[in-house]
Write the structure tokens for this entry.
Amino acid sequence: MMRRGFIGGALALAASPAAARPVMPEHASPRPLLSPPFKNGAGQDLTLADFHGRTVLLNIWATWCVPCREEMPTLDRIEARLGGSEFHVLALSIDRAGSGAVRSFYEEIGIRHLAVYLGDQTRVMLGFGVIGLPTTILIDTQGRELARRVGPADWDSPAALSQFQRTIEKGRTSR
């Protein structure tokens, strides 16, 4: 009896429109977020505080992670579409091979809009509480975590675009 109810609920969920389900389930309220230091492609030290005032989609990834590699073009397209003074895709690689490996990978698959960011694997994983790759965190203009997803996604889907645009709009009104 209980099993039938579970299956019915699962079927109802599966039948709901994709746009109605957020790509990243949002937390009930924003959560504080620590930021370990990382470097940009020019070797400058940064933290999330350097992006204060912008909505940030932080994606923690590595070139050796197959699902990470597969989702990277969708992150590039979302940066091309929404990136600017209000929104930024921060694709933070934890590759030990350095920024050269990231640049080669970007060139190999045609990434044109994502900047190179590199962090120490241990510091990034512990600092951001990463348990698997890829991990993507939606961060508000105040540097707080709004949502988190472990695993790949279609980041330029209509559902994701809608979620990001809503978050950007909330950021405008909270300034």
Observations:
- The domain at 22-173 is CATH 3.40.30.10 (Glutaredoxin).
